[in-house]
Amino acid sequence: MPMLKCRLFSGTNWFTLTPEGMRNLGFHLAAKQAIPAQRSLSGILRVSHQYDVVVIGVGAAGSATFFELARRGARVLAIEQFYPGHDRGSSHGESRIIRLAYFEHPSYVPLLSEARRRWVDLDKTSKEKVFLTTGSVEIGFPGAEMIRHSLDASRRHKLEIHEMDAAEIRRRFPAFQVPDDWTGHFQPDGGLLIPEAAVRRYVDAGARLGGKLITGTKVKNIRSRANAVELEIEGERITTNSVVVTAGAWLKELVADIRLPLTITRQVVGWFEPLRRPSNFDAGALPVFLLAAPDDAYYGFPNYCGSGLKAASHIPGRPLSGANDLRQDATVEDEKGIRHLLRRYMPDGNGPLVKMQTCMYTNTPDGHFLIDRAEHDSRIVIASACSGHGFKFAPVLGEILADMAEQKRPAFRVEGFSANASQRLPPVPDLV
Asked: Per the CATH hierarchy, to which homologous superfamily does domain 134-191+263-363 belong?
């Protein structure tokens, strides 16, 4: 069977890529038959017909957009330079937080409420677990901006919220050992999402609805033509009525005229085996959490499915010059930074390291999302810089981006996420 350089997923069939790609996508191939695809003269798969929409980048927002457009009956193609659920971007790592008490800005809360409802629905129809309700707890030092703004957003939108002093935090969630003058609050609707499973679910559902997916192929150029948008992929050309670019840290390589400066940062997460009283770190006892300390801000997850207590700093890390510079190169120094949280505030969790993993944040200057149209061509929709807090919004981002691709008014307001700095929301409050 010939080995080609890209793969096309249509309906229930995956077209063959390479031995490496076969291994990377093994979770799909277990239930699907790989069959040969037709070669073009250049030796790769030729895609010759026009699409209504092409989605570039199949992470959280891209996979949800692919699904939503396929659900609407659009002729949609998604192109992923790696494979769905890969570990080189911002949509991997076994778990993501969803929390409704949102310190970043109160305007996110309606989007979150709708996103949560859709995650619950997706989980009910998925063979793999996608969403687990754990509640969310936010804890901070006296005067922490995160606590103040999170409570403000909760009160404005009448969320159920339980405020706690340090003694109640320690009693209710004994994994935490925080100073006596700290405070916090618990919101019962929070939980954890399984990112790889969610992306797979959206990709599979979109393909069954008629969407097409090419993986292992990088888009080289996006060109605006009079009657269509043209994409170049390794010597081939694809024409489409519109494009949605959800390429994360690769966004500016594809759409160069974005005026808003973006910064790519390397982030490291770690998983740890609890040292004592491991049941305090299980999903039934420990919610997903944010913790604002005077010198750092952390987030974390309970020990779900035996993978260990997961934790990391939410402060943007070391800048990367480009997305391709990310490596799975976590160091002892990275481990020490995470253990600072465990040693001081979660000492029973400060046990043996299970593993570490790197990912990327693509940050705007104010910490908010970027959702807009390209300045030179309104048929090109951009939505990638989520500043480290975007995964949880994927179901509603999919609808918003599908609306924009179809030249409709978005179902939710996005003016505060414009590429025009004068129209954007006020900056996200400082965490330290």
From this structure: D-Amino Acid Oxidase, subunit A, domain 2 (3.30.9.10)
